[in-house]
Amino acid sequence: MIHLQCIACGEKYGVDEIIYSCKRCGDLLEVKYDYEALKTKLKKSDWQRLPLSVWRYKDFMPIHDSSKIVSLSEGGTGLHPCKRLGNLLGVKQLYVKNEGENPTGSFKDRGMTVGVTKAIELGMNNVICASTGNTAASLAAYAAKAGIQCIVLIPSGKIAYGKLAQATVYGARVVQVRGNFDQALKIVLELSEKNRRVYLLNSVNPYRVEGQKSLAYEICDQLNHKAPDKVIVPVGNAGNISAVWKGFSEFYELGFISRLPQMIGIQSEGAAPIAQAVKRGRNEIVPIDQPETIATAIRIGFPISWKKALRAIRESKGTAETVTDREILEAQKMLAKYEGLFVEPASASSIAGLKKLIELEEIDKNEVIVCVATGHGLKDPDVIMQTCERPFEVDAEVKSVEVLLGPSS
Ligand code: AN7
Q: Ligand 1: distance of its center to the CA of 39 in Å?
């Protein structure tokens, strides 16, 4: 009922093969289901009575054995109506899906709970990934929970401290590669092909992104079985926008929603190969050798899932846009000050992108918009302390604080 399939040549593989790319043509793989059989299975299931979480959608996941599930309570994150920010930007129905509420503080946990469960089902006890930080933190946590070995490769220098602290405390072997993310990813791709004892959990792993599709399912369920008009997603390696589109497409195919949303990918100006391809109407990306952005999570020059992302954007009649570091930092502060949501810079790119698209009149004020905020702000507090007002220092006395209330009238 479930198999893996190449997105380019259509070659099929068994659901329990340890394989990260098509053996025939080398392209990306995705998990395919027999939707008629899935419909029958869902009719007999009580999934709609379960609380919102990744595992509410267990029937939609490529897992055989529920007893092997490795979970830290992922998913079920808030879809926050943002009235104040919406008013400021000029849209009536703005929601932020706050993925920082996940156990390690990012959307990656949705993928890792499924990916590490799959690793256990396949009998693997070594997992590896390359990461700009969040993937490493998440994989390290789930490997710890499962009691298996974990190696994470991170680029030298530019990684948010909170993420490094997480990966370290969860007990992963943290390897800092002299190079950027793209170089680190190349190493783990080659190593996992060469040495079959290690299981790769970057987003080329088709099972990991299956977990991430639950983000779309949750949005539909939180909006009372409707899809929004537009979903705005920060894009780095491009696994997430592809996964979220797969989620919406499956809910549509299964009859749980009657309309599909448009997918909008946002990249940082200094690391925007996908957004550039979309803007220029190209079918291929031009990789960027030296990606640069303050949003270190999405400082990626050669997104491995670019083909899936372009497909998601085209199929959904969506678009992509770039934002500057300044726009990202401004959006980060706006979201915090107007809505009480503190997200990391990469996550704020979805808000910055929304602002830009409203200014460009590509978004109508009556549309239902969901911005995905991918990770928690505490991951990278340094950025804030560099750009925000410092604390106000006073002598230890009441009157120096009382002046802050202003004159009494
Ligand atoms: C907060 O951790 O790639 O487009 O190695 O941490 O699916 O890559 C992080 C990516 C957006 C982009 N927002 O998602 C990593 C990594 C945050 C992120 C993205 C990331 P993809």
A: 32
Ligand 1 neighbourhood includes 106 CB (under 6 angstroms): yes
Give the pTM.
0.97
Q: What pLDDT does residue 201 have?
A: 98
Nearest to 186 by CA among 149, 142, 155: 155
Q: What gap in Å lies between CA 228 and CA 207, rounded to an integer?
A: 26
Does the beta carbon of 238 lie inside 6 Å of ligand 1? yes
> Any idea what DSSP says for residue 79?
E
Atom of ligand 1 nearest to the CA of 235: 4
219-257 residues labelled b (16+ CB within 10 A) or e (exposed): bbbbbeebbbbbbbbbbbbbbbbbbbbbbbbbbbeeebb
| 231-267 pLDDT, tens digit each | 999 999 999 999 999 999 999 999 999 999 999 999 9
Is any ligand 1 atom within 6 A of the Cβ of residue 347?
Answer: yes
Q: What is the pLDDT of residues 105-155, one digit of tens each?
A: 999 999 999 999 999 999 999 999 999 999 999 999 999 999 999 999 999
Helix (H, G, I), strand (E, B) or coil at 130: strand
- Measured distance CA(244)–CA(212) in Å, rounded: 7
